[in-house]
Design brief:
Elements (H helix, E strand, L loop, with lengths): L10 H25 L11 H14 L1 H29 L3 H6 L2 H13 L4 H29 L6 E5 L4 E9 L3 E5 L7 E4 H4 E6 L6
Antiparallel strand pairs: 1-2, 1-5, 2-3, 3-4
Helix pairs in contact: 1-2, 1-6, 3-6
């Protein structure tokens, strides 16, 4: 198990840890998201794509960003304050004293309270929140498109000037992922080799 000791880490170390963290987060979350649609995403991605994927997703979706910030804040408050208050409330209850070894748990909570570096734990919590959210997005999107008509939101203009209206699922530096209306399988098209333009379709007014 890798222990991160705050006093022994320099600025360069934090950058390196953050770099690896974003890459792992991007690879895992995208692999799960596209895997739900039957796409082996690792065949279509690069290290750079994995690095910027979480940042791009959060900056382009303020609702998702707000939800993760709120959840992360609640988890932070729980692990730093509420957990200890909750234990202090329960430990005086007679039923709790009969079931648990209070002295043993007192020592464990004192050890937790004395730990000042909660960065690894918070990073793990955010990882779980982000991956869970990405998984939920994939499952919800798949169910939606399986049960409803796929409405195009982009027009792809290929290099031979043919056009195709599609429903965008995602994009990285090399590939554009989309559904063709009437099909249930995702198509991945190389951007540089095949596409001339990617146009956003205007929403039709009712």
């Amino acid at each position: 198990m890798i222990k991160i000791e705050k006093d022994k880490l320099g600025l360069q170390d934090y950058f390196y840890i953050g770099y690896l963290y974003l890459i792992i987060l991007g690879i895992v979350s995208d692999a799960i998201f596209y895997g739900i649609f039957g796409v082996s995403y690792l065949n279509y991605t690069t290290i750079l794509d994995a690095l910027i994927s979480p940042i791009s997703l959060l900056t382009n979706n303020w609702i998702l960003s707000l939800f993760l910030i709120v959840m992360f804040g609640l988890m932070y408050l729980y692990f730093t304050k509420w957990m200890f208050k909750f234990y202090a409330y329960l430990r005086v209850k007679k039923w709790c004293q009969k079931i648990y070894n209070i002295e043993k748990w007192d020592k464990k909570y004192e050890q937790l309270k004395s730990k000042k570096n909660i960065l690894p734990g918070m990073m793990f919590v955010f990882f779980l929140l982000f991956v869970s959210m990405r998984t939920g997005m994939g499952i919800g999107m798949k169910q939606k498109y399986n049960n409803k008509e796929i409405i195009p939101n982009y027009t792809l203009v290929f290099k031979d000037n043919t056009k195709l209206d599609v429903r965008k699922i995602g994009q990285n530096s090399a590939y554009f992922f989309y559904f063709i209306p009437g099909e249930k399988v995702i198509t991945a098209t190389p951007i540089t080799d095949n596409l001339k333009q990617i146009k956003v379709l205007k929403k039709k007014k009712n």
